Amino acid sequence: MTPTEQYRALLTILYKEIHRFMRIWTQTLIPPAIMIMLYFVIFGTLIGKRIGQMGGFDYMQFMIPGLIMMSVISNSYSNVVSSFFGQKFARSIEELLITPLPHYLILLGWILGGVARGLLVGAIVTFVSLWFYDLSVDNWALSIFVVVTTSILFSLGGFLNALFAESFDDISIVPTFIMQPLIYLGGVFYSIQLLPSFWQTVSLANPILYMINAFRYSILGSSDLEALGFSISYAIFMIIGFILLLGSLCLWFLHKGRGIRS
Amino acid sequence: MKALSISNLKKEYAGGLQALKGIDLEVQRGDFFALLGPNGAGKSTTIGIISSLVTKTSGQVKILDIDIDENHSLAKKKLGVVGQEVNFNQFEKVGDIIRNQAGYYGLSFKEARENAKHYMRKLDIWDKRNEQARKLSGGMKRRVMVAKALVNNPELLILDEPTAGVDIELRRSLWDFLTEINENGTTIILTTHYLEEAERLCRNIAIIDCGEIVENTSMQELLTRLEVETFVFDLTSPLEKLPETTRFNMVLENPSRLKVTIEKGQGLNSVFNSLSELGIEISSMRNETGRLEELFLGLVDSNLNDTK
């Protein structure tokens, strides 16, 4: 395929993916907005007032970057895993496999679809949060970079999950038993400086902690990372490292036909 | 130029099942080719390998002289495939499904729209373009599959049982459509369980059984091998008893239906003459089974006996 043909094919996959999640907007866009609103009402307005300051900021102010990131991570992941597995299940993935599309273009199309939904939901959550708190952004470029790369990373994770999944149960195991605990223990609602030193060390093994804190740093200008002796560039390096690792794995398994060819 | 060239193609599935045992097959450009075989013979595996849905164990596949391993992208541009089962997102609109398929081949939006429109009109689904595919009947979904496979104007079209489970009206309209696109230069490879379909449409034929090609010849040549043919005659006046004759093998199925088996070389005229001499009047006649069906069963049965 010529570069122009590849570009058109990529746009087609992206259009199809965006069209898919927009068609079912009551399942994809509204629930995160409602969930985040409830978090703000319960943890921000009702309980947050009693908590006071967290990491040197109002509790609601502290919580907002974590909640935005949580929405971006879970929506990027679930968009790709449900869409790609759905196509595998309905055998409509064959539509793509019989075409001249190279594997990297198939992967890129789904990743861009996941990023599109992740960013759209992230924007909705940000908009909702502005109702509750007058948020200002310390470093726009860094915040956009972190949110986009994290969305890419979890879209890749969703793709890998979908390649290996053989039933609908398989696409809910990783989000339920691995991602959700890591997100909630990654410092969305609390500063890990509150933890005893042993659990602080354990928390440092959680890669999502670095992503949430890098984003928090870009919004608030401060996060747990510096306090624990890590620079933001370390977090960025980690995100990019994971993107390269998961991206290579996805391409390798696509090439081998894992889960899509007999 | 050959539209398809397969040499020593083997496929062994995990678990040890040898679906293809080293088949060789050539289809000339412009041909209308039938690939027949019983269920599990290896037809769909062969098509799966050509269309990259199945990974081959070994062997070579060329589409219009392009090796699918060496220039995968170019080879696939020449190919359109209609799968055995519905394989599109049924929650999408018919028009979107077909236009998107064109997009995957890298066609511009304008080309995609025009090609989709052309084939939707040709296949009588233009009125359904804004309907969700899941609301269509089985026959309509089949038409969508065909339109989708043609939207990139492929030079080689493979149809895996395209008329399975569709009504006779649609089957005949699809036959006419396929004949038309074949006359316009598209090479067609057809697998089907309706042998009269293959007999009517195809010029050349291969029969695959147990992962091996057991016959590969022209339809005409194959049909000349038929040793006996059985005809069923509907009689104008009922017969109480079968008249005695040694010329043909005759069975009175019921008082109004006579079954006559004639051997190669015995023309139908001699049957008519004999029946006329016996005072039997005929109102209509037909083959008991298709000619190809009789040959097919013979070839598959003999291969089964050989492998036992």
Spatial strand order of the main sheet of chain B: 6-7-8-3-9-10
- In spatial order, strands of the major sheet of chain A run 1-2
CATH class of the largest domain in chain B: Alpha Beta
Helix percent of chain A reads over 70%
Question: Structural class per helix/strand content of chain B?
Answer: alpha/beta
**Percentage of residues assigned to helices of chain B:** 25-40%
Distance between the termini of chain B: 39 Å
CATH superfamily of the largest domain in chain B: P-loop containing nucleotide triphosphate hydrolases
* Helix and strand run of chain B: EEEHEEHEHHHEHEHEEHEEEHEH
Number of helices of chain B: 10
* Shape assignment of chain B: globular
Number of strands of chain A: 2
Count up the helices of chain A. 13
Order of helices and strands of chain A: HHHHEEHHHHHHHHH
Q: Report how far the terminal alpha carbons of chain A are from each other.
A: 25 Å
* Overall body shape of chain A: globular
Note the main attributes of this structure.
heterodimer, A: 262 residues, mainly alpha, two-stranded antiparallel ribbon, 13 helices, 2 strands, 2% strand, B: alpha/beta, Alpha-Beta Plaits, 2 domains, four-stranded antiparallel sheet, 10 helices, 35% helix, 29% strand
